[in-house]
Each structure stands twice: as structure tokens, then as C-alpha cells.
Amino acid sequence: MSSHHAPRSGEAPVAIIMGSQSDWPTMRHAADRLDELGVVYETKIVSAHRTPDRMTAFAKGAEDAGHKVIIAGAGGAAHLPGMVAAMTTLPVLGVPVSVTALQGQDSLLSIVQMPAGVPVGTLAIGKAGASNAGLMAASILALSDDDLADRLKAWRQARTDGVAAAPVDDPT
Ligand code: RP5
């Protein structure tokens, strides 16, 4: 029996936010994992630099909106995850997106090196980081949702079971 309290209508436990439309091809991999695990989420474009008021309203209202975990992706001078983390105590998972000549190294360093007291859980650059942010959001929610914990374990087991014992010439 799950101890999870289902979200009220319209509430999404996970918010996936990103600085730009151009981040979506990366950030959609977080959404894909949540879809596979049956976790409800919202997606929003929120830019620290271009829409700072929208960012502030989102971060200050995130808890009241019913969000439990925030996934924030941004490229370049990626201030979005850290600025959102400055305005909420919800867990913030930061995803560096590779969109500039520096190929995500810039956003990784912008996101990861937070001052003590304002944590951002920083994932890998790009698709792998977005995908793992989705999985990590699910594992956080699974702490209080036994059914989700079972789905997450099954998801991981399926990946394990999908690894062949030996390589073949043409895997397709
Ligand atoms: C960042 O600048 C966004 O997160 C995006 O990764 C990057 C480039 O944005 P666009 O110029 O493509 O809108 O703020």
C-alpha cells in the first residue's frame, strides 16, 4: 500500500524548467524518463537573464504550486538552477546544456560551483544529465511513494536485463 498522497488536481510533483526553447531537445530526456515512470510533471521556459521576474515568481511559488522537485536546465552562463535554489528549499537538480562554443563546460561550472548553503544537485552535461535528472527526481519522490519505488526498480532492472553478454557485428 502506497503511503504517497496523490497530488491535488492540476499539481505536478516535478517541474522541468529551462532557459530557452533551445534547451528542450536536451531537457526532453528528463521528461521521457518521468513519462516512463508515470510521474506527473510540468514544463516551462524560465530564463534567469531574459525573464528574471518569471523566474522569481516560479521559484517563490513552486512549493505552493505542489512541486516537490525542480529540474532546471540551462546552457552558457547557466544561472537558472542556482538562482531558483536561492529562492526555494525544494530540491533543485541542475542540468548543464551544451549550446555554446564551450560545449556545456561553461554551464557545468556555472551550475556546480554553488556557495555553501544553497545546494544544487548537478548532473552531467547534456542528454545523460537530463535523463538522470528525471530518474533522480523519481527516486526522491519514491522515498514516499512505494508504487513509484517499485516502478523505478523495474525500470532499472529492465536496463540491466537489456545488456547483452557479448557484442555482435550488427546490433540492429
Ligand atoms: C541559456 O542560453 C539557455 O538556457 C540556453 O541554453 C542558452 C541559449 O539560449 P537561446 O539563445 O538559444 O535562446 O540562457
Describe this structure in words.
With 172 residues, this protein is α/β, with parallel strands linked by helices. It has one domain: Rossmann fold. Helices cover 41% and strands 15% of the residues. The protein contains six helices and five strands. The protein has helices spanning 24-37, 52-61, 80-86, 105-112, 127-142, 146-161, and strands at 14-18, 41-45, 69-75, 92-97, 121-122. A five-stranded parallel beta sheet has the order 2-1-3-4-5, sandwiched between helices. Strand 3 (69-75), helix 3 (80-86) and strand 4 (92-97) form a beta-alpha-beta unit. The chain is globular. Bound molecules: 5-O-phosphono-beta-D-ribofuranose.
Break the fold down into its secondary structure elements and pairings.
Elements: E1 14-18, H1 24-37, E2 41-45, H2 52-61, E3 69-75, H3 80-86, E4 92-97, H4 105-112, E5 121-122, H5 127-142, H6 146-161
Helix pairs in contact: 1-5, 2-3, 5-6
Bound molecules: 5-O-phosphono-beta-D-ribofuranose.
5-O-phosphono-beta-D-ribofuranose is lined by residues 18-20, 22-23, 47, 49, 74-76, 97, 99.
